[in-house]
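User: Predict the structure for this protein chain, please.
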Amino acid sequence: MNTINDGKNDEIKKAVRDLTDDIKSHEKQLEEIRKECDHPAKEVKVKLTSDGVGSPKLRKVCHVCGQIVGYPSPEEIKREIGDQKD
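Assistant: Here is the predicted structure, written as structure tokens:
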């Protein structure tokens, strides 16, 4: 199945493959950097979770490297959203 755009399609495939490889390489580097981080300062942020489904969630995030490090406590959530009802 030859078309006039075969050369262009091959260029697009190569560009996509190269970018995908670059992304994977950068993700590995980021993972290694985050493993070295001691996560000294944490903050509560709205983050998209890795499953990509549903609404963003509140998570505890390292202020230094951006790694999700846990779930906020009910008190931290209250502080974050400004709800001080008790």
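Residues 3 and 9 are 10 Å apart (CA to CA).
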